[in-house]
Design a protein that fits this description.
Layout (H helix, E strand, L loop, with lengths): L6 H15 L5 H21 L4 H31 L5 H10 L2 H4 L2 H11 L5 H26 L4 H25 L2
Length: about 180
């Protein structure tokens, strides 16, 4: 049996990275999706603290609604600014670019599912979902810094800015909703 060509492992690695935290120009959609998911958890985790299934359903449907709205508004905006009619190919490209909004909801939904299945306490699954959101935001800050070739201090600032925004959501949940 022949070994895979050298490009094959890189392509698989890139696809896996894309599914986990996005690649290149999807940072914005992943950050937006993560913050949206965290805000949904913060808002509804208090309303339904004993129902991770319900919170997960709200996180997933909110992600879909925001993805569709984001896709539609970006398509309209680009169509107007470029003075070109909307074409399916362009919408497909935008849909791929904005996929981070949907994918960002996956880790929190997995944590909420674990709580719903009884593998974690319901409240612990909500906090785990928020923690996964913070971890995603840290990764996205580091990715941004790497892509922009920022130095050490600027990288810390990028990561801190992303995590800081996520912490505002967590603090909101802890202070206002509890």
């Amino acid at each position: 049996m022949e070994a895979a060509p050298p490009e094959q492992p890189r392509r698989v690695s890139r696809m896996a990275a894309h599914l986990v935290v996005g690649v290149d120009d999807t940072i914005a959609s992943t950050v937006f999706g993560t913050i949206t998911a965290m805000a949904t958890i913060a808002a509804y985790g208090r309303v339904f603290p004993d129902s991770p299934w319900r919170v997960e359903e709200l996180v997933a449907t909110t992600a879909v609604v925001f993805w569709i709205a984001h896709l539609y508004t970006h398509a309209l905006s680009e169509s107007i600014s470029e003075r070109l009619a909307l074409r399916f190919g362009r919408i497909r490209t935008l849909a791929r670019r904005e996929l981070g909004i949907l994918l960002a909801a996956v880790p929190p939904c997995v944590a909420l599912t674990l709580g719903a299945l009884g593998l974690f306490d319901e409240t612990a699954s909500i906090w785990l979902a928020l923690g996964l959101g913070l971890a995603t935001l840290a990764l996205e800050g580091a990715r941004y810094a790497r892509i922009e070739r920022l130095g050490g201090t600027a990288t810390l600032v990028a990561v801190a800015a992303n995590v800081g925004l996520g912490l505002l959501v967590v603090l909101f949940k802890a202070a206002v909703l509890h």
